[in-house]
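To illustrate the input format used throughout this study, we show a single complete record. The first block contains the structure-token representation of the backbone; no residue identities are included at this stage. The design step must infer an amino acid for every position from geometry alone.
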């Protein structure tokens, strides 16, 4: 089968290769990949800034059709359409695995950089990471299942948004836009902010229901927040950009006794004024990945047609055009880029 493979640890060591087609173990389903999203993590991996174990097939956001199941598999059969979380290997026995948060497992080995991922025609995975995809949800949209689960985790599981709250989302990338969408579903008024190169994403934020879109290259976010909050500041602020400067603005945008949620990933250690957390009596919450319930909620929202996110996929490419796909992901011209192995 064809697969996009990271062939070495350095930047640019990437190729479309003929790769052995996997066959399912006794408790595995074999998926024909329907669509696989490119995410910020993939860019870190390509640039050699993220731990990975080459040669390895990239891709960890995906969905597809079951084509074969091992003899122990229950609940899935050939023909089923599924969306799946990262089929990482975890120990299953540590505190975090047993407590239901395998993302925290010390022995976690993730697919798409440590073991083979989904930028390929087929992938074999455990049924526990699969979720049945409602018929009306396209593979194109379902390729965003992972960022959607991340946003569900951030908004609905790690923090609490009340109807009528004022929420600021700083950073309109895919996760930021989905965070906005989740906060709207919870009944908040939402301001989303980005910089001059985010215009397409900010427009998408408007289409997804943002009450106010702020291009910080032209406008002062803090002034807008003051206007919307009667001078008090936002009840919750989601830092989704991974920029130290954005976090600095978040400390100012949030009201006293408010909540700042860290969703974005910084390129490394940053300098910031943590006295704000103390002096404003803030809650500062980290959120990382998702748990099983985040996916259950995400799929339920799709099932009830509460979200419509197809339009967030701005570019779709066959595997053979992976280079163009990665370029579009990095140059700001895209919201979400997906690879479609079926059209390769
Ligand atoms: Zn991802
Ligand atoms: Zn574990």
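Output of the design step:
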């Amino acid at each position: 089968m064809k697969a996009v493979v990271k062939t070495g640890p350095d930047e640019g060591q990437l190729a479309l290769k003929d790769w052995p087609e996997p066959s399912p173990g006794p408790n595995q389903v074999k998926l024909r990949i329907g669509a696989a999203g490119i995410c910020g993590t993939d860019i870190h991996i390509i640039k050699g800034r993220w731990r990975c174990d080459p040669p390895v097939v990239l891709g960890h956001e995906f969905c597809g059709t079951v084509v074969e199941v091992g003899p122990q598999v229950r609940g899935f059969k050939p023909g089923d359409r599924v969306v799946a979380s990262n089929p990482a290997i975890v120990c299953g026995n540590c505190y975090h695995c047993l407590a239901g948060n395998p993302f925290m497992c010390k022995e976690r080995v993730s697919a798409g950089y440590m073991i083979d991922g989904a930028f390929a025609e087929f992938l074999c995975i455990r049924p526990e990471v699969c979720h049945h995809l409602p018929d009306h949800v396209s593979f194109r949209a379902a390729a965003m299942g992972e960022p959607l689960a991340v946003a569900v985790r951030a908004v609905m599981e790690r923090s609490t948004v009340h109807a009528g709250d004022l929420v600021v989302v700083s950073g309109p990338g895919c996760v930021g836009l989905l965070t906005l969408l989740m906060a709207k579903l919870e009944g908040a008024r939402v301001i989303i902010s980005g910089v001059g190169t985010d215009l397409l994403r900010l427009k998408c934020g408007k289409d997804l229901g943002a009450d106010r879109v702020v291009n910080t290259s032209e406008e002062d976010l803090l002034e807008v927040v003051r206007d919307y909050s009667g001078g008090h500041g936002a009840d919750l602020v989601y830092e989704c950009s991974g920029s130290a400067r954005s976090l600095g603005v978040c400390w100012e945008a949030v009201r006293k006794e408010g909540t700042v949620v860290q969703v974005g990933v910084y390129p490394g250690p940053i300098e910031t004024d943590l006295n704000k957390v103390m002096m404003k009596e803030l809650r500062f919450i980290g959120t990382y990945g998702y748990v099983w319930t985040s996916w259950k909620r995400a799929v339920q929202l799709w099932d009830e047609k509460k979200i419509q996110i197809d339009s967030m996929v701005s570019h779709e490419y066959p595997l053979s055009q992976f280079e163009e796909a990665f370029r579009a992901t990095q140059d700001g011209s895209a919201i979400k880029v997906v690879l479609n192995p079926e059209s390769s």
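Structural context for interpreting the output: Residues 39, 41, 60-61, 146 surround zinc ion (ligand 1) (CB under 6 Å). The domain at 149-286 is CATH 3.40.50.720 (Rossmann fold).
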